[in-house]
Amino acid sequence: EAGVTQFPSHSVIEKGQTVTLRCDPISGHDNLYWYRRVMGKEIKFLLHFVKESKQDESGMPNNRFLAERTGGTYSTLKVQPAELEDSGVYFCASSQETTRPSGYTFGSGTRLTVV
Amino acid sequence: GQSLEQPSEVTAVEGAIVQINCTYQTSGFYGLSWYQQHDGGAPTFLSYNALDGLEETGRFSSFLSRSDSYGYLLLQELQMKDSASYFCAVEADSWGKLQFGAGTQVVVTP
Questions:
Q1: How far apart are the first and last CA of chain A?
Q2: For a tag site, which of A8, A29, A60, B69 has the least CB within 10 Å?
Q3: Rounded to an integer, what distance in angstroms lies between the CA atom of residue A100 and that of residue A59?
Q4: Residue A66: what are its φ and ψ, rounded to 5°?
Q5: How wide is the angle at C-alpha A66 spanned by C-alphas B43 and A10, nearest 5°?
Q6: pLDDT digits (tens, 9 = 90+) for A11-66
Q7: Is B60 in the A-facing interface, judged by CB distances under 8 Å?
Q8: Which of B90, B95, B105 is the best residue to mutate to test the A interface, defined by the most A CB atoms within 10 Å of its own CB?
Q9: Contacts of residue A104 in chain B, CB cutoff 8 Å?
């Protein structure tokens, strides 16, 4: 079974530019989550999709961040315009409700650097 | 506010036993999970406790006491490959919304 795939693995952009991160969850997983780890700090929740619907987006830092999950498959997270404080590692995770407590499968993350 | 506390680093020799404690202060509680992360890799699920007691999975065990808002991860028969960061995470507000601790760096020496 393929795992959670994220790309790009690394992205370096200038302040003010736009970046789009993509996550392909495990096939059949209805739940998809985005998390972020800013340098030296905890991994923090951003939002949760159930299929194509946003279940909880309470962790989204501001309106420069836009997440979508068209058709309930892959998801994108767009940052526009990027700021220096957006630098960090963005993780995606997916799960099936019926497989608890097997946990959530995380991708390897996208390391975003804003210069 | 809500918080999770775990030690920043633990060093031990191969074959030893390491216990990583996690205390949490959250408004709600569904369960406590543990994840392992090697440098540059994906956090990998290790164990989950929703009820008080000990869960054992091979060389790793996890314990929870909900009345004490406390849990620990026990790593036995340490191997070099166990050198990694270990995170405790609580589902406090809803299923799937994990709140992570800052992580414990485990260093295994020969």
A1: 37
A2: A8
A3: 23
A4: -135, 120
A5: 45
A6: 999 999 999 999 999 998 999 999 999 987 889 999 999 999 999 999 999 999 99
A7: no
A8: B95
A9: 45, 96, 98
